[in-house]
Amino acid sequence: MECAIGIDLGGTSIKYALVDVNGNCLLKGQLPSMASLSADAVLGQLEKAVIVVKEEAGKQGYNLKGIGVGTPGIVDETNRIVLGGAENIAGWNNIDIATFLENRFSLPVVVGNDANLMGLGETKYGAGRGCTHVVFITVGTGIGGAVIIDGKLFTGYANRGTELGHTPLIANGERCACGAIGCLEHYASTSALVRAFMKRASVEGINFDENVDGRLIVRLYQERNPLAVDCMNGHFYYLGRGIAGFINVFSPQRVVIGGGLSESGPFYLEGVKRVVDENVIKDCACNTEIVIAKLGNWAGVIGAAALVL
Ligand code: BGC
Hints:
It contains ten helices and 13 strands. The chain is 40% helix and 23% strand. The strands form three sheets. It has a five-stranded mixed beta sheet. It is an alpha/beta fold. A hairpin with a 3-residue loop joins strand 1 and strand 2. Beta-D-glucopyranose binds next to helix 3. Belongs to the ROK (NagC/XylR) family.
């Protein structure tokens, strides 16, 4: 059977899988990405991931067609080099991931922006299936986006666009990791939610025994903790306004929301939709359905393999 290795590089972990032509993951795993250390450390982890999958593919006798890698940041138009814009990974500028892996494994390598590949995966096999016009956004450490137009991934001229998380949302706001002021990512990512929560907690002199992350904030929100409710409503406000803008621009059939927070329950989608409804132009939104991603954490890996297959 024809298969490819799909890899999704994130700020915290590297997810990898052996994926078949129907988008099924035959083997899945993850490794720490070591993104805070150095580009070399991250490349070393990518290499380890490929070794594991390649060995398994060999044992099972699969016909391995190549390696697809999704990475944060802007990837050059040859789909080989990450140029920059991946602020959550130390030194991740001008890295020729494709040549690095090809030299070690003698398999063709294709590289793409992580969110683009997740959007591709969701459109081919997940929540966007059957649609020709999809906007995908993933909410995590950063915010990434993908736009599918007429059934094809639209990446802007020379592959340098659709950085939806870096839409300037707040005039006179705080500075985003990308250097600009008031980006959607800086206000609506999971990191932004945690930052807002910690700031408020410290002002109010509240301490938490556990590590504060998105999961904890969601749990407290569901327990009606006032601080968590306020911060979560803030999150819905920023994200909803961002999505309303994307609907006004692209008028997609579906907006697919991915990332850990989006999996926290029906309240999440309701919270976002409420704000979208208040801010969107109705005639732009009349064909748009907002849904949660279906492939969960594995959309990026499946999309990366789809690039090869
Ligand atoms: C980066 C994007 C990436 C997104 C999700 C953002 O900070 O700028 O390129 O797609 O994070 O990882």
